Amino acid sequence: MRLIIAGGGTGGHLFPGIAVAEEFLARGPENEVLFVGTERGIEARLMPKLGYKLELISASGMKGMGTVKKLMSAGRLLYGYSQSRKILKAFRPDMVLGVGGYASAPILLAARGMGIRTFIHEQNAAPGLTNKVLSRVVDGIFISMEEAASFFPGKSTQMTGNPIRKEILWGFQEQRSRTTGDTFSLLVFGGSAGAQRINSAMLEALPHLGEVKHKLRITHQTGEKDVARVREGYQAQGVQAQVLSFIDNMSAAYGAADLVICRAGATTIAEVTACGKGCIFIPYPFAADDHQRKNAESLVKRDAGRMILEEDLTGAHLAAEILNLMNHPEQVAELEKNARSLAQLDAAQAIVAAMVMKAD
Ligand SMILES: CC(=O)N[C@H]1[C@@H](OP(=O)(O)OP(=O)(O)OC[C@H]2O[C@@H](n3ccc(=O)[nH]c3=O)[C@H](O)[C@@H]2O)O[C@H](CO)[C@@H](O)[C@@H]1O
């Protein structure tokens, strides 16, 4: 069978798509997958490295734009639609799965017009605009959180969870290399693009950590724009840290971490629960419907994570949370246990099984 996975833009959309591709390909040597995205998305940078076939189409968002920009965007979507028809005719997929992000719109609509089975997967508790629109025409909707069902009235949804890449599901156990003795490992990352606010807060936290800061083994992902500033910030304060713009091997990074400081994107949440990590979540406050805060709260209320809202984020506050958890390993162990209990590990299998059944 042949499957197109469309969408991306950010890692939070793309990586669940990769997890579905892994599962689909594992089911039969004759199975083929093609990804469809845009040149501005993370997919254009990552897919060639990962060895997946990728076609690029023209597409862009419309939310919050003025009339002229909206018209230009509509033009790009129309052009993307005609590119999509060509891709569909050449690849002849049995089904198309949209994983969110505007690149999924033209190709799902074109597939629908050609009588090909179409599906969407929504990672968040509150769906983005593309999935809201596409939900009206697709053959199946997969959701990661129960709350999302209410956004798709009149449609039946299947609760599958958010697919996690095999590398992270299985690799992290093998790459588990937690620190022993006197050191404590911190993994700091701000979703797939990095987070300047978290970067600054971490640097501001260091003076409040006193001598303890020299016991930390820090891996800090900053995003492309902030890497030099953050690297210099650690150096200026004499603190050892591995500062990277992007972490290619998240499995090893999770495996080594005693504590994670991160945003609360849906795919981050799926991964930290699968790996059973203690986390301090700092939700991105401008995500649609404040969904990152809702994601984090669902863990916090089960004692499966701690949260600092950006409005309360200061170096002193972050340092106090870090120190508290360093000094109370039993609290970290409790967070880890509770996070692990919330993990949904078979999302990719459930999605592939449902799509294959409907496409047969
Ligand atoms: C600002 C914003 O609107 N972000 C949205 C975006 O987040 P974003 O793209 O940041 O996605 P998530 O936080 O959900 O997931 C990040 C993904 O990137 C990977 N990773 C991250 C850093 C790194 O250095 N290397 C790496 O591989 C992680 O392992 C994970 O697979 O999509 C998510 C899923 O739809 C949403 O919930 C988020 O709200």
Overview of the structural elements:
One of its GO terms (molecular function) is undecaprenyldiphospho-muramoylpentapeptide beta-N-acetylglucosaminyltransferase activity. Keywords: Cell cycle, Cell division, Cell membrane, Cell shape, Cell wall biogenesis/degradation, Glycosyltransferase, Membrane, Peptidoglycan synthesis, Transferase. InterPro entries: GlcNAc_MurG, Glyco_trans_28_C, GlycoTrans_28_N. It is found in: Cell membrane. Its EC number is 2.4.1.227. Helix content is 44%, strand content 16%. Strands 3-2-1-4-5-6-7 form a seven-stranded parallel sheet, sandwiched between helices. A six-stranded parallel sheet has the order 10-9-8-11-12-13, with helices on both faces. The radius of gyration is 21 Å and the shape is globular. The protein starts with a strand and ends with a helix. α1 packs across α14 and α6 packs across α9. With 360 residues, the chain is of the alpha/beta class. The model has no long low-confidence stretch (mean pLDDT 93). The chain has two domains: 178 residues, Rossmann fold, CATH 3.40.50.2000; 174 residues, Rossmann fold. The protein contains 14 helices and 13 strands. α1 links the parallel β1 and β2. It binds uridine-diphosphate-N-acetylglucosamine (UD1).
At CATH level 2, the architecture of the largest domain is: 3-Layer(aba) Sandwich
What is the quaternary state of this protein?
single chain
Beta strand %: 15-25%
Secondary-structure element series: EHEHEHEHEHEEHEHEHEHEHEHEHHH
| CATH-assigned fold name of the largest domain | Rossmann fold
CATH uppermost class of the largest domain: Alpha Beta
- Count of individual beta strands: 13
Structural class designation: alpha/beta
- Give me the Rg, rounded: 21 Å
Stretches where pLDDT is under 50 for at least 5 consecutive residues are: none
Distance between the termini: 10 Å
- List the strand order in the largest sheet: 3-2-1-4-5-6-7
Output mean pLDDT: 93
CATH superfamily of the largest domain: Glycogen Phosphorylase B
Question: How many alpha or pi helices?
Answer: 14
Main β-sheet: number of strands, strand sense, barrel status? Answer: 7 strands, parallel
Shape: globular
Number of domains: 2
Helix percent reads: 40-55%
Bound small-molecule species? uridine-diphosphate-N-acetylglucosamine
Family: Belongs to the glycosyltransferase 28 family. MurG subfamily.
GO cellular component, one term: plasma membrane
Main location: membrane
Pfam families: Glyco_tran_28_C (PF04101), Glyco_transf_28 (PF03033)
